[in-house]
Amino acid sequence: MDNRKRLPFIIMLIAGAITGIFAYIRDFSLLDTILWLACAMCVFYILGYYFRWILDGFERDIREKEKEAAIEAAKLAAAEESAVIEKEVSSEDENFMNEVTSESGEEGSVADLF
Asked: Is this prediction's pTM over 0.90?
C-alpha cells in the first residue's frame, strides 16, 4: 500500500525527467522548458493519482469478495454443524425410545407409544 501512495509522484518525476531531457535536446528557452515541465508534471501527477485510485478500487473489490466468501463459508459450516447435531439428537432419541419399548416388553415402533 505504501508503494501505491508514491505512484503519482514517481510517474510525475519520470515524466518531468523525460520532458526535461527532450527540452534540453531541442534547445528550448528556459521559460519554455519551465512551462513544459510544469504542465507535464501536473498532467502526469493527475494521471498517476487516477491510476492509483483504480488500483485501490480493485483492492477494495477483492477485499469485499473475500469477506463475502468468508461469511458464506461460516454460514455453510454453521448449517452443516447444526445438521450433524440434529442427526445426533434424533439418533439418541430413537435409541432411548427403543430402550423404553424393550424394557416394557412390548414390541413395536416408537409411533405405537403415542
From this structure: no
Q: Are 42 and 8 in contact (CB under 8 A)?
A: no
Positive or negative torsion for Cα 51, 57, 63, 66:
negative
Distance separating alpha carbons of residues 70 and 91, to the nearest angstrom:
32
Residue 10, all three cell numbers: 514517481
For the chain, which residues make up each domain, given as ranges? 2-101
**How do the pLDDT tens digits run along the chain, 114 residues long?**
577 888 899 999 999 999 999 999 999 999 999 999 999 999 999 999 999 999 999 999 999 999 988 888 888 877 777 665 555 555 555 655 566 556 555 555 555 554
Q: Is the dihedral of CA 37, 39, 41, 44 positive or negative?
A: negative
Residue type, 49: Y
- The continuous run of DSSP H or E covering 12 comes out as helix 7-25
> Are 97 and 110 spatial neighbours (Cβ–Cβ below 8 Å)?
yes
- Exposed e or buried b per residue across 78-92, where buried means at least 16 C-beta atoms within 10 angstroms of its C-beta: eeeeeeeeeeeeeee
